[in-house]
Design brief:
With 83 residues, the chain is of the alpha+beta class. Helices cover 28% and strands 24% of the residues. It is globular and about 35 Å long. The mean pLDDT is 89.
Length: 83
Amino acid sequence: MKARHTPLRHQPIADGLQALPGEWGLVGNYVWQGAAKTAARSIETGRLVAYQPAGSFEAQVRIGSEGDALVYARYIGTGEVAA
């Protein structure tokens, strides 16, 4: 039986991704694909506060060699133009 997912501290992960715009980084390893898909969607929509505003991060689920679902994300910015 696979171990349960350990809760993540998303703010340090989001901060690290913002420091490297456009670079994909591992957010977490999920036992269930459904949970990974929910996490990826929550990152993209800004439902997870660390990844706000909505649309400033892209996320995707990749399947690891052990069959676990890996969530990767990257910071793409807010689309705002500085005046």
